[in-house]
Structure formats: C-alpha cells, structure tokens
Design brief:
Elements lengths: L2 H17 L10 E8 L3 E2 H15 E14 L2 E12 L12 E13 L2 E9 L1 H7 L10
Parallel strand pairs: 1-6
Antiparallel strand pairs: 1-2, 3-4, 4-5, 5-6
C-alpha cells in the first residue's frame, strides 16, 4: 500500500471508528502528539472525548465519506454526519430531530498515523436544524 493510500486509510478508520465509539482503535491511527485545530484538542484521548460529546448529543451518529484527496502527507476529506438530536448540543436541549451536516477535514499524516488536523464543520446548518438559530442565519 502506498503512503497516500495508507494515510487515506488511517483517516477513514479514524472517522468511522470514532463515530461508532470504538475509541480503542484510535491508538493505531492517531499519533500520541495529535493536535486538532481550531479546538486545540490533543492526543487520541482528547479526540475521543470530543467525539463522545457529539455522540451523546447526536444519537446514531454516522459519518459518510464523500471525497478524499491526498497530496504528500496531507489528506483532505469531505464528509457528511447524520443522526438524531437526543442530547444537549452546544446548549440546545434535545429535539429528537434528524440532523445532517457536512465537514471538511485536512489531515497531516506521518508513518500511517494522523498527527495534525484542521477541521471546518457546518455548525450553522446543524444549529438551524435543531432550532438554535433562525433559518438564514450566517456566520
């Protein structure tokens, strides 16, 4: 497997395993020195804690990878996250509504492990879907 394919596989595994709550699997694909921007999340444990918060807010959380591209040590991934709002979400009480939002992640990998990521999620759309923001609100 080429380095690019190995890096894509690491990112795919991270997204799929974390969304399913299989946090033990992160150690094989996420570096101990991992850093997520802009949140400042560090290490596999920090990533697991962040994802667990989303899993508690969004039941049946699923990640669908729409596209992945590689350039050197970098992997760009566009994904769609779906589930049902059944827990506190950024201060918004559960609504029971189905939600779907997109995310773009740029991952820097080394030796088949993710070392650093930059993430942009469509939280405006997510918050509109649960009624926390009015339709048409913009960042």
């Amino acid at each position: 497997m080429s380095d690019s394919e190995q890096n894509k596989a690491a990112v795919r595994s991270c997204l799929e395993e974390a969304s399913q709550g299989n946090f033990g699997a992160l150690d094989s694909v996420v570096s101990r020195d991992y850093l997520l921007h802009p949140e400042g999340v560090r290490g596999p444990e920090g990533l697991a804690q962040l994802v667990q918060g989303y899993r508690e807010a969004i039941a049946d959380l699923r990640v669908t990878i729409e596209h992945q591209f590689t350039e050197g040590d970098y992997v760009a991934t566009r994904s769609t996250l779906t589930g049902r709002h059944e827990g506190d979400l950024m201060g918004t009480a559960p609504t029971g509504r189905d939600v779907s939002f997109s995310m773009l992640t740029i991952s820097r990998c080394h030796d088949g492990k993710i070392e650093e990521e930059w993430e942009i999620a469509d939280t405006i759309s997510l918050l509109q879907q649960v009624g926390a923001l009015p339709e048409g609100a913009q960042a």
